[in-house]
Structures are given as structure tokens and as C-alpha cells.
Amino acid sequence: MPETRKILIVVMDGLGDRAIKQLHWKTPLQSAVRPNLNWYAEHGSSGIVDVIGPGIRPGSDTSHLSILGYDPYEVYTGRGPIEAAGIGLVGKKGDVAFRCNFATVDGKMVVTDRRAGRIKEPDTTELVKAFDGLTIDGVEAVVKEATEHRAVLLLRGPGLSAKVSDADPHGSSKVHDVLPLEPEAKKTAKIVNAFVKRSYSILNDHPVNLHRASLGLPVANILLPRGAGMFPEIEPFEDKWDMTGACVAGVSLIKGIGRICGLEIIEVPGATGGLDTDMIAKAKAAIHQLESKDFVLMNIKAADIASHDGDPVKKVEVIERLDEMAGFMRQNLPEDVVVAFVADHCTPIEMQDHSGDPVPLTIYCEGMVRDTGATFDEAAASQGGLGRLRGKDIMPILYDKAGRSEKFGA
Ligand code: ZN
Ligand code: ZN
After folding, report:
1. Does pTM top 0.85 for this prediction?
2. What is the pLDDT of residues 79-95, one digit of tens each?
3. 6-76+234-401: CATH, from 3.40.720.10, 3.40.462.20, 3.40.50.300, 3.30.200.40
4. What is the Å distance from ligand 1's center to 179 Cα?
5. CA–CA separation, 306 vs 311, rounded Å?
């Protein structure tokens, strides 16, 4: 056995489910043909995991923090900073980030299209350039385009607070005045309100919008911030675990989690974060990263998408593709890698949203004690030797299997 091993965590987003009548009271995972995931369960150890805690419904962001060994209650400050980090805008402690929509307003500041006709790049890329170097009352306001009609606003300056309400009215009404939700947030609320007004004056007559108007398209003449969050101070993964690490993910939110924890984000052609994602390309990228890195976190979003769509047949199909990916790993993963297959939360088809049910986990490496379980699913995993764990227990277990943990005591 090598002195230390490397670690790969494969997160199959939203994989876990509940018994579904349409599938004869089986879960989609139980219904799928999955010889490779079963092989891993048969040759490894399994358990079930309350990713945050029993009955807690995790978001994908908080659950991934937990899987990486962080306490989300300590380090999670909202979606704004994660989305910002997802598109490469990593702030420092004290910076406040917002998710924004490019929207259309009339002359009375009433929102007529909350997505500005689903404007996207390269128009949005051109529009954000007009915000370069913007400061308001000595506070830097950095704007960056995200996917489609979305953008991120990052405020940097002294005395900011994230306790402010949204400018986005979330519907067709007048743009909301941003209100302070605590006395210390007055300054920030004032700045965000000023920013919204400025965005209108910057965007309304912008050449991109004049062009859109000439084509009869809705203009993107305002930015509507929402979901304020203070950038957290997170101990870099490399310091916390003394391992170099990379993150292979298609969706921006998970890239944001990886980036905020200091993992290198690997862009994989064909990794769309959608149902059409190239899972084998992602597996290849993860294996390639393990040649030089100690740790890789991989996320495949597709099962979660099928669940949110409420489509059990599609979810079974996705799981069978995940199984092919697991087969590729069986063939190609080097022997010195400890691999874990897990979900970040259950997304029951019937709920079309995340639930607080525990998720299945299987860990495999050479020399692993083989549990009696010969299948990988929610029920079989609950019989496994790893028992019932919390998400934060996963890293210490893998760390120990990798021969990296220190002895406690003599
Ligand atoms: Zn998720
Ligand atoms: Zn989801």
C-alpha cells in the first residue's frame, strides 16, 4: 500500500429519492440498471448520510460545504457570494455580493420584463463594461455578467452590511426601495439604491439597448440586486486538509463553492451542468487531475434536474448514465485513490425539491472491509457498515482511509 492515497468524491446531485408508485414503490436509483455502482457497493463500505443533519433540507451549496468538511452554519452567508465566486468574482471578508437580473423598466420604474427578454452574452458582457471603475460614496461597485439575464454585483468598502432587502420586486411592480434590515445597514441600503438608479442612467441609452430597441427586443435598462450576502472568511481547503485539490463541476453554484474553498476549478468541454452533460469527459478530467492533485471533488447535476422536473423516467435514465461513468472509473481510476460515491441531498420526484432524507454513500479503496450490501441504493446503504453519518464525517473517514490522519494518543 502506498504511504498516502488520493481522494475522489463523486457527488451525484439530488440522487436520493423516495418510493414512487409509478416505479412500483421503488426509488429511481433502485429502478436503474447500475452494475458499476453496485460493484462499488459490493467491494466497499456503505452507509447513509444526513448531509447537514437529520431532517434538514440542504441546498446544494450548504451540502457541498458540509461534504468538504466545513460547518455550513459557520461559513455560509447566503447565495450572493457563492454565485459571485461561481463566475470568478471572489471577494474578501467585508465585501457584500448580490445576485442581479438585467430587467426592463418603464419610465415610472415599473418592471415590465424581469429578464429583459432573456438577454444573454455577448450583450450582457458589453453592458457590464459600462460599469467599469464605478464607485458610489467611496464604495467600489463591481458588476460581472453571469448566465443569460443574470449578473453579480460586488460592493467593496468599509462598513458594509448584507442585512438589506431586495431591489428586485420579483414580479411586475415598481422597483423596490432597498431597506436596511438592521441599523448598521443604512449605508449599504443607500448605496444599493444609488446603484440601481445609476444602472438605469448607465443602461437606458446604452448602444446595446438602442440596438435591441430597434429590433423590437426588450431593453436591459436596469440591474435589480437581490440576495445580499457578506463574503465569508473560509479556511482554504489546502490549509484545512493539507492536500492540494481541484473541483470538476458544470454548474456555477458548485464552482462557486469550490472556488470559495480555494479548490482549483477545472473547466471541462462538454460539462454543461445540464441533462446533456458529458459525464465521461468529467470523469476523465477528474482522473487526470488526480495525477497531480491529492483531492478532487466532482459534481454531476443531472439527476437533480430530472427530479426538479418531476420526471422519474428521465431520472432513471440519468442514473444509468451515472452508472456508465462509474464503470469508466472502475476501469481507469488508479489504485491509490480512495473514492466515495454520494449525493448532496435527496430530491424526491414527488416533491420536485430537496428533502431532508439521508443519502446513500459508498466508499471504495483497496483493502476496504466489504459490507454485506451488494447493491447501491438508499435501502441497501442503510444496512452498510458505515452506519448513519453526518456530511462532515465523510472527509475524516476518507482522510483516514487515505492514510493521512494523525494518531490521537499514544
Ligand atoms: Zn444539489
Ligand atoms: Zn436541486
Report:
1. yes
2. 999 999 999 999 998 99
3. 3.40.720.10
4. 31
5. 6
